[in-house]
Specification:
mainly alpha; 4 helices
Length: 109
Amino acid sequence: MNGKTRRVCLLAALCALVSLCATQAREEKDEGKAEELDRTLYDLADGLRVVAIALSSYLPETADRILAALGQPGDLAWEEVAYGRTVPAEGIAAAEPLFPRVELETAVA
């Protein structure tokens, strides 16, 4: 499996994790699940941080924007691509879309 395929698989796994987590949160309003939810969200942020670093040589500005949105330091060193290196943050700020949708009329003009 090449690097591009691995990144796509990681992104697909993160999307599945978000879907599962959101479904469980809606179905089970159990306070005991709060810690599990926190762990899941941390894992999601950690995975997105890793993807940002992996993409940095191709899309450096995008990688910086992802890390900033996650409240993470801008260290793009390959050694940072490891589980559990995400700095815990209190909430994640809303960010502008990384790749805004282009309307057909705008793109043609």
